[in-house]
UniProtKB/TrEMBL annotation:
It comes from Microtetraspora malaysiensis. Signal peptide: none annotated. This is Chorismate mutase. GO terms for molecular function: chorismate mutase activity. The keyword Isomerase applies.
Length: 323
């Protein structure tokens, strides 16, 4: 660390916090072409990565075969299906890539066993009053049927008759204790997508009819935020490039935001733009950044930040309203 960096007030005294190291790549479960639990990216089910269909929604009045065929007609990717009863299981086996065990019937052991017997991957939602032990016990029912492909999905507890409250600590504990991938069921609202990703969700489950805005917000959290809060260790060129693409997505988001803020400073300063350049301020911000990027260090960061700052100043001059 240089003396200048040590003297910089913006810089933290201690080392920057590392994203939590979580047991990535632990026991990935494949749902069709989608691998859940293989690290990043976090899967968005009910979004671009996979769809799901609930036969419960129709209370068994609709033919399972027809409903699955209809879902398949509009979607070629991975499809999860939640059966209404054992009568649906043949159609599920024929047309689905995985079975969703809904929160309402997590403890219908007969149906869970029969569904597990299909051999398809199982996504097991936690019943609204189920404890962690009761939830994890469902894995044993599946394994007893010879089905080891289990993903756990936290879908919330009911408190005082209100909407379900997602328990992200429980989701995390379920992942750690079981060594299985975990999902967070967000319903129609992606407001907790970032929190779920930070808490270690391997995937987000949105309602089948979630609006595009919610899908976009969940996808953004799964891509951009996940990169900032989770570590990944790719082992192939393709994997490393995919990881770089995610980092670049985060970098672009941050660069755009920085350019906007730099433009604000130009408008507010007595002398803005290149004419008002403050090299001492630039030196100090590079020194502060070197704390978070110690291997790059000040000497490598300085030209990068010079380019970033100059791009911001050019943009501000183009959009000149401060002059
Ligand atoms: O902080 C300022 O005074 C700015 O104008 C912003 C900014 C920057 O982009 O960070 C740009 C030019 C200055 O030389 C220093 C910093």
């Amino acid at each position: 660390m240089s003396q200048a960096a040590a003297a910089t007030p913006e810089s933290a005294a201690s080392h920057p916090a590392r994203p939590p190291a979580r047991a990535e790549n632990r026991a990935a479960v494949r749902i069709g072409a989608l691998a859940v639990g293989e690290g990043l990216p976090v899967a968005v089910i009910g979004g671009g990565d996979a769809r799901w269909l609930s036969l419960r929604a129709g209370h068994g009045r609709r033919s399972a075969g027809e409903a699955i065929a209809e879902a398949r007609a509009g979607w070629r990717g991975p499809l999860l299906v939640e059966p209404f009863s054992a009568a649906d299981l043949d159609a599920v086996a024929a047309g689905a890539d995985g079975v969703l065990v809904g929160a309402a019937w997590m403890q219908d052991f007969q149906l869970v066993r029969a569904a597990a017997g299909l051999g398809l991957p199982m996504v097991v939602q936690r019943g609204p009053a189920a404890t962690l032990d009761e939830w994890l016990a469902i894995i044993d029912y599946c394994v007893a049927e010879g089905n080891d492909q289990v993903v756990l999905c936290e879908s919330g507890s009911r408190t005082h008759g209100s909407a379900a409250v997602l328990d992200l600590a429980l989701m995390r504990a379920a992942g750690e204790r079981s060594g299985r991938p975990v999902l967070a069921a967000l319903g129609h609202d992606a407001a907790l997508a970032g929190a779920a990703v930070a808490a270690g969700a391997d995937g987000l489950l949105l309602a089948p009819d979630a609006l595009p805005g919610a899908v976009a917000a969940a996808t953004e959290a799964a891509t951009v935020l996940a990169t900032l809060v989770r570590q990944e260790v790719p082992r192939t060129v393709a994997g490393a490039r995919a990881a770089i693409d995610r980092v670049d997505a985060a970098l672009a988001t941050v660069l755009e935001r920085r350019a906007t803020l730099a433009g604000t400073v130009q408008r507010l300063k007595p002398v803005g733009g290149f004419a008002g350049r403050d090299m001492e301020r630039e030196r100090r911000l590079v020194a502060a950044m070197a704390h978070r990027a110690p291997r790059l260090g000040e000497s490598r960061l300085a030209p990068v930040m010079n380019a970033v700052i100059e791009a911001g100043l050019h943009l501000a001059e183009e959009e000149r309203s401060w002059a």
